[in-house]
């Protein structure tokens, strides 16, 4: 990884070093972090933490979390450690395949597990010529592996939160078993009236409340883009620029 950039998140509250080419964190990990209902003192594990965008955005909003991350690509894991230190945030990060976690990690369980798994199915589409980008966007790990690993690492009543492409919802639901319940799906659309292209999914280990499919949440004002300026809805702008909570309905 030869060239990196230093990019501001949360209106400058957080600066992340990330590769100039390859996978670069965008809006999705920020929305994921903003949706997590954690309390100070709780423990959080991020699977596939990359350079740390989601876990470090979460740390900026909620103090005194015990943060942990696992990332298969050593270069990204190194950047995550550097980013945590540079932003004054304590975090423990392992470089490992989530299908073969180190004993030190498997000895732990967590109040929250969060993830932004690779969006594309390896069985469809072409691989990216950039290896790190290809791993980040497709990878070789099945959705079942992601969900099973997350479930195993949750404490009883612990919460799973993930963000993904809307068309992968069937894969996510198929990967969940009876250990997880209280599943809630929040479709995210670019604008009112458009098809959702992202989803946030929440589940609870040992949860028993019925499945909920919530109303779509638009990111932008108006039915279409009409000017050369940012037009995020005020709530979304506050999340992205001020680091506020993404207040999703129960």
Automatic annotation (TrEMBL):
Question: Keywords assigned by UniProt?
Answer: Methyltransferase, S-adenosyl-L-methionine, Transferase
MF annotations from Gene Ontology:
methyltransferase activity
Please list the residue ranges annotated as the Methyltransferase small domain: 31-166
Q: Which domain of life is it from?
A: Bacteria
Query: Do the record's keywords include rRNA-binding?
Result: no
Which BP terms in the Gene Ontology apply to this protein?
Answer: methylation
Pfam families per record: MTS
Gene3D superfamilies recorded: Vaccinia Virus protein VP39
Record InterPro entries: DNA_methylase_N6_adenine_CS, SAM-dependent_MTases_sf, Small_mtfrase_dom, tRNA_Adenine-N(6)_MTase
Coiled coil residues, start to end: none
Where does the chain cross the membrane? none
Q: What name is this protein filed under?
A: Methyltransferase
Q: Give the classification, highest ranks.
A: Bacteria, Pseudomonadati, Pseudomonadota, Alphaproteobacteria, Rhodobacterales
């Amino acid at each position: 990884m030869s060239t990196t950039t230093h990019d501001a998140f949360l209106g400058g509250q957080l600066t992340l070093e990330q590769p100039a080419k390859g996978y670069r964190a965008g809006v999705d990990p920020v929305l994921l972090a903003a949706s997590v209902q954690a309390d100070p003192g709780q423990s959080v594990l991020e699977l596939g933490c990359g350079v740390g965008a989601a876990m470090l955005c979460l740390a900026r909003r909620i103090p005194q979390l015990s943060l942990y991350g696992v990332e298969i690509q050593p270069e990204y894991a190194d950047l995550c450690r550097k980013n945590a230190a540079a932003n004054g945030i304590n975090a423990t990060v392992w470089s490992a395949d989530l299908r073969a976690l180190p004993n030190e990690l498997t000895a732990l369980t967590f109040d929250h597990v969060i993830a932004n798994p690779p969006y594309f199915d390896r069985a469809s589409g072409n691989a990216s010529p950039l290896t790190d980008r290809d791993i980040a966007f497709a990878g070789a790990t099945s959705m079942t592996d992601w969900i099973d690993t997350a479930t195993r690492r949750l404490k009883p009543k612990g919460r799973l939160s993930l963000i993904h492409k809307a068309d992968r919802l069937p894969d996510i639901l198929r990967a969940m078993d009876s250990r997880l319940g209280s599943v809630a799906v929040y479709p995210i659309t670019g604008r009112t009236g458009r098809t959702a292209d992202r989803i946030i999914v929440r589940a609870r280990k040992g949860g028993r409340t019925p499945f909920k499919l919530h109303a779509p949440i638009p990111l932008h004002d108006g039915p279409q883009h009409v000017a050369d300026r940012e037009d995020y809805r005020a709530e979304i702008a506050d999340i992205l620029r001020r680091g506020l909570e993404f207040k999703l309905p129960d």
